[in-house]
Every structure is written in C-alpha cells, then in structure tokens.
Write a structure and sequence with these properties.
two-stranded antiparallel ribbon
C-alpha cells in the first residue's frame, strides 16, 4: 500500500464522494464513446488502445456491457491483428495492411485478447497472439520496437502472454528488445525517449533549439512500463532494470509538467506547440497514479503531479456531453500550429482517459474498500485475543479452551501451540505489509508487535507461554506452521527476532527430528521445518526434505489432488497441507541455494501448475450462495479448505478463468456465510469447535479450538496491498453463479503433467 493511501483522505474532504464522482465520469465518458461508435472496427493500434482502457474500466466496475463491447470487437477481428498467414511476407516497419503482422501497431490488440482469455479461457482467443509473438521471438531480429509507441503496444503483450504460458522466452525477449529500443531513442541524460531515431538531438531540435520529446510518445512508454511491472514476476532477474527505468522516467515527466496540469506536446518546449494536450497527459497521469498506488513513487511530488493531471482531465479535457477533448490527432510529433481544441477527440485518447480515471478511483478508494475492511476486521477479531495474551505471557492462563467430545486424552497444552502456529501461518502475509497510518495499518502494526513478542515467549523457557515443544509428536505439526509463518513473512517476522530467540528456534526445530512422522501428509511438516533451516543457513536434514518431496510426487493422483499417503482420502488435506507446504518447501530450498539431486526450481514450477488446477477445483466447489461441500475429516478447520485458492491469489498466479474480482467475491461470500450471525466465538473471544457456528459433534478425536485457527489460512490475499487488483477490481460472479445464471463460463478439463524433472545427478 502506498504511503499516500491515507494522506489523500486528508487532502480530499470527502474521498467517498470524490470516488463516486470519478466513477460517474468513467461511466459518462465510456457510454458516450460506445453509444457513438460501433465495436466492429479493425484491430489497428488506435482502436486497440481504446480497448486497453475499456478493459481497465470493466475490471474496475464490472460493467458487462463494456466487456461485451470488447468481445464483439475481438470477434469481429477474428482474434487477430494483421491477418496475413504468409510468414515470408511479414513485416515490422510502418504499415497498415495485412502483411505488417510484426509491426507493433497490429499487436497491441493482443493485450485485450489476453485479458479476455483470462476471463473465459478459449484457445482461439490467444492462438493468433501466440503464433505471431512466438514466431517473432524465433527470429534473429531484435529491433522490432524502433519507435516509442511500440513500447506500450507490445511490452505488456509479452508479460501478459508470459503469465498465461509460463514461457520465460517472453521475458527474455522483452528485455532484449527494449535494450535495442534504448540504443535507438533513449536519452540517458533526461531519462526520456525520443519518438524514434529521426528525432534524436542534436540532429533534430524543437523550434527553440531544445531536445524535442513528444508527450504522447513518452506517455506510451510510462504507461507501458507500469503495465509491465504489474505483471512482471517479482523474482525476474531483470526486474530492477524496469523499476529503475520507470522511476527515472517518472521523475523526468514530473519535472516538465505545466502549471495547469497538462504536459505540452513538446515536453521541454511549450512554445513549440503551445496549449493543452490530453492523450500524453492521460497516459502520464495513469503512469504516475499506478506507481503511487503500488508503492514505487512515494515522494509528494508525484502525488502533486498526478492530482494536477487528474484535475486537468476532469475539468478541461472532459466535455459536458462526455467527449474527451484536446487530444492531438494521429501523428508522431508535436506540430507547430496544429489545432488541438475541445472538439479534438479520438479512440486512443478516450482509452488513455479511462486508464487514468480508473487508476484515480483505485487511489481514492484505497482506505474505503468494504471487502478488505471486512476481511481485516474478521482476521483482527480472530487474532487479537490470542496475540494480546501471548505477547504478555498470559495465553495459557487466560485462553478459554475447548476440546473434542471424544478427546484422546493427550496433554491439553498442545492447544496453545496449535493456536499460535496456525494463526501465524495465516496472518503472516498481512503482517508483512509495510506500515502506514490507516486504520488497517494501525491494527496491523499492533498485531505485528504482539506477534514478535509472542514469538519470543514461544521459545523462552522462562515464559509462562513457552510452548510444548517436547514430549509428544503433535509438536511436529504445529512447529511446521510456525516455520511456515516465517517462510511467508521472512523479512517481517524472522529477521526482526533477536539472536537469542532465533537460536532457540533453531534448537527447537532441530530437536523435532526425534519424531518419526507417519506415512502421510506429516512428511511435509518435517520438510517445511528443515527447509526453513536451510533458508536461514542453519544445518538442515536434506534427506528429510528430499524424501518428503519424492513421497509427495508418488502420492500425486492427478488433476490437482494428492493422496494422503499410499491411500487416497476424499478430504481437504490437499488444501490444509499438501499444496501450500510442498510449494513452500521447494521455494525455501530454491532460496537456500542448496544443490542436491532434486531440481527444486523445476519441481516448484510443476507444483504451481497442480496448485492452479486445484484452485480451479476449489472455486467451482463454491456454490452460487457462497457455500462449499462439507466432506472429509478435520472439517472444523473451516475456510482452510480453500487455502490453495487463496494462495494462488496471493502468489498472483490465478489461472485463466479465475479473475481477481471473482475469487475475492467468492471467498468473501463464504466468509459471510460462515461467520456472520453465528456462534463462532466463545465468551472469551476464542474460536469455538464447529464449521459454521458451535458444532462440537463434528470434531475429530484430535480437535481442540486451537486447531481451528487453521481457518486463517484463507486470509492470505490480505498480503496483497490494498491497491492490488484483487481488492480494487469489481466483485464478479464466480463460476457457479455464471453457470446457474445461464451465462458463459469456462469449460473444465483434465490437466495432464507437462513436466517430468529428472535428478540432477
């Protein structure tokens, strides 16, 4: 979350009213355009650029009419750009006919096709996009993006198709191609881009002898970089290159904004072509707001520039009838004497306006998102009684404990380790977010401070809340959830611990090797602990890790399901343990740099695919009413049954067919059905035994109310900042709602294995 998420509230007297006004402007502008322009037009850049804005407006509002408009446009064009099929004639210089397949102005349409594919994954929607781009990447040429506009047209195509295909070549070629673009038109002194090689200074100068940077050209680049960073994997090897370029360009853009809030067509020479211009200004406003919303631009100068840009857009560019004016016509430079006035409009200008307006709404609404506020309040209600007591050493003395009616007689002190470990595994991603002064931020900091103190008490033999690490086998289970919490929030929860506490954890984790885990999901409890030890540089048992990995591979039965040992059990243990702890074991081993027989990266990639398939299964188990089937043992773990769906959302790896808006809506609906108006908490504020309320009869012999804190494992998406599309996209119908309402929904099919990693030696 940006540090400005709360400062904006101070700057705007009524953020709710401001957001409502911006939403009404989006509606006015887009309705005006669509009511006056049929979607059955070609897929050239100007039309395609509009649709990038229309899709952003759809994601924000959920307006199905706007989705249908883009779908009709895509269908009209056969999900293609330039339509030639003779590869020998494909060109990438400027051209508007069908043989210019490799020219980026015919490829920007693939952005919208990819977005539509992610909503309804039909192969035809991206077949042409993949054919074209993968052919292009197979050629030895790397100078495809020879003009600034092309960076917006095609860079986001590369990252969108990477997310769909997992083909790393898209990222590698993205980096290779932009390096060539930089060699052609990037000005290292200013951080700005000349429109293309013809305009490089000093061969070309503005009317007053200055460097001539065209606003719309640099607007394309800043907006394109924002879109790239939105989809670029956080661990991509060249990510910092794109971050640095984006920030430097943002700095240069802010420095040359005009006092009235717009950017002149020749950015450093207002007199060259004086007067306001909307398309460049809208792209800049979008690019700056995106960076503010996503924590890249945290200086007040960016906020001031973005606000001035938005004020220009709504007060000058926007006309009374919904038209977007002052858009420079199609061209490639600032032209002295060219008339640009209130009547000057265009499809691409409207698209840029919609991008900026949508991002502005996300900014204003950062502290006023009802679904997120509900999640935060519910998680705080679950967590506060535990952490407020344990942080002061009073959990064991004050917790109101409940155990199963058929309790097996084990030491009831296991309750506290179950409570703490499972709670922390669920809450860790949220606690890892940076501090801010919002109401949510204050709650988060309070609980994080309590958590750090609780972690210390958990391993301090002198503390009344020293946990039951020894003397029983159950400790292995909940030590693994504590280890998982460290893996999920390593910087925020592990690194701040003092050295004594860290060593105590190493000692406690190490002594758990005395436990021989049952031949079930328990092998992953050992691997989670040992992989954390590997990550922190402590001695680890590689055999426990690798043997667990091999067993999990043997127990995979297909289509996302794992058997719980040699025998398949129809329960939710694929959710409770297998998918998350397997992925986290593999990721920790990747992080550790350990070289063993197992290729952890390849195993991880395959495990992600399985988890994505299981996320599809889980989402389809959620009924139109927001319920899911109750089957198998450990059902009092409540929403932990949906953990892999939440995990894929947090990882930003939701598969095609599962959008952020629909997954959030589905999970929120289940939370309301499960927790609202039901007896889920006892009189001391701790969870009760049950599924949707107090239902002690469904407990297993090992169940206590500490076990139930597994339900927090469904709250993982709170680890995404409030500005993330998971929270800002409109709530959308999930699959069962679409199906039972007679609407199109994705077909389901078996997912076969496509990767078979071999031992490294």
């Amino acid at each position: 979350m940006s540090i400005f998420s709360t400062s904006l509230t101070a700057a705007i007297q009524n953020p709710v009213k401001e957001a409502a006004e911006a939403r009404s402007i989006i509606d006015k502008v887009n309705e005006h355009w669509q009511n006056n322009n049929d979607p059955e037009v070609n897929a050239f850049w100007d039309n395609a650029a509009y649709h990038t804005g229309n899709m952003e407006a759809y994601r924000l509002t959920g307006n199905e009419k706007w989705l249908d408009y883009s779908t009709r446009w895509a269908e009209h064009n056969g999900w293609a750009g330039a339509k030639s099929n003779d590869k020998e004639k494909w060109k990438y210089s400027y051209g508007e006919s069908d043989e210019f397949v490799l020219f980026g102005d015919w490829q920007v349409c693939f952005q919208t096709y990819a977005d539509l594919y992610n909503i309804l994954p039909e192969d035809k929607r991206i077949k042409r996009a993949r054919d074209v781009m993968e052919y292009e990447m197979s050629t030895p040429r790397n100078d495809y993006w020879w003009w600034a506009d092309g960076l917006y047209m095609v860079m986001p195509v590369m990252t969108k198709l990477y997310k769909i295909t997992d083909n790393a070549k898209y990222l590698d070629k993205l980096y290779e191609y932009i390096l060539v673009s930089d060699s052609i038109m990037y000005d290292t002194e200013t951080g700005l881009y000349f429109r293309d090689g013809k305009y490089v200074y000093p061969a070309h100068k503005s009317a007053n002898g200055k460097k001539d940077f065209w606003a719309r050209g640099d607007g394309w680049v800043l907006a394109g970089l924002a879109k790239v960073l939105q989809d670029l994997p956080v661990n991509y090897k060249h990510r910092q290159f794109f971050v640095d370029k984006y920030v430097k360009l943002a700095d240069a853009v802010v420095a040359c904004q005009q006092p009235a809030g717009y950017w002149s067509r020749s950015m450093l020479d207002e007199a060259h072509a004086p007067g306001p211009e909307t398309s460049g200004t809208a792209f800049f406003t979008y690019g700056l707001l995106w960076g503010i919303n996503n924590g890249y631009l945290n200086d007040a100068k960016y906020l001031e520039a973005a606000q001035k840009g938005w004020n220009y857009l709504k007060n000058t560019a926007l006309q009374k009838d919904g038209r977007v004016g002052y858009v420079q016509p199609i061209g490639e430079k600032a032209i002295p004497g060219q008339v640009v006035d209130a009547k000057s409009t265009s499809n691409f200008g409207v698209g840029a306006f919609l991008l900026a307006a949508s991002e502005y709404v996300r900014f204003v609404e950062a502290a006023h998102r009802q679904d997120r506020a509900y999640w935060v309040d519910l998680l705080y209600k679950i967590a506060h009684p535990v952490l407020s007591k344990m942080s002061t050493g009073n959990l064991k003395s004050d917790m109101l404990v409940e155990v199963s009616p058929n309790w097996d007689g084990r030491d009831k002190d296991v309750v506290y380790m179950e409570t703490f470990g499972r709670l922390m595994a669920g809450i860790a991603p949220w606690l890892a977010l940076p501090d801010d002064t919002s109401a949510e931020g204050l709650k988060r900091k309070e609980l994080r401070d309590m958590a750090i103190a609780s972690y210390r008490n958990a391993v301090d033999p002198e503390s009344p809340d020293y946990l039951l690490w020894r003397g029983h086998g159950q400790a292995l289970v909940d030590a693994a959830y504590i280890a998982e919490s460290f893996l999920r929030a390593y910087d925020a929860l592990w690194l701040p611990l003092d050295d004594v506490t860290k060593q105590r954890y190493v000692n406690e984790f190490t002594q758990l090797r005395r436990i021989d885990p049952p031949y079930t999901n328990w092998v992953l409890f050992s691997s989670a602990i040992e992989s954390l030890l590997a990550k922190i540089g402590a001695e680890c048992d590689e055999y426990r890790i690798n043997s667990a990995i091999r067993k999990v591979e043997e127990w995979y039965v297909g289509d996302g399901w794992y058997a719980d040992g040699p025998d398949f059990a129809y329960d939710y243990y694929s959710s409770f343990v297998f998918h998350p702890m397997y992925l986290e074991t593999l990721q920790a081993m990747k992080d550790s740099g350990k070289y063993t027989r197992i290729h952890y990266s390849k195993y991880y990639d395959r495990a992600v695919k399985r988890a994505q398939k299981f996320a599809i299964v889980l989402e389809r188990l959620i009924s139109p009413e927001g319920t899911f089937p109750v089957f198998g043992r450990s059902i009092p773990y409540r929403m932990a049954a949906l953990q892999p769906l939440a995990l894929m959302a947090w990882y930003e790896k939701l598969p095609a067919g599962l959008t952020n808006g629909q997954v959030r809506a589905a999970l929120t609906a289940v939370m309301h059905r499960m927790f609202d108006g039901r007896e889920n908490f006892n009189e001391a504020g701790y969870l009760t035994i049950g599924f949707a309320g107090r239902q002690p009869n469904i407990a297993d012999w090992y169940t206590n109310n500490g076990s139930l804190y597994m339900t927090t494992l469904s709250f993982l998406p709170l680890g995404l900042p409030a500005s993330h599309p998971f929270w800002t996209d409109a709530p959308l119908e999930w699959t069962n709602q679409k199906a039972w309402n007679g609407k199109p929904f994705p077909k389901d099919h078996r997912w076969g294995e496509t990767m078979q990693p071999k031992d490294l030696f």
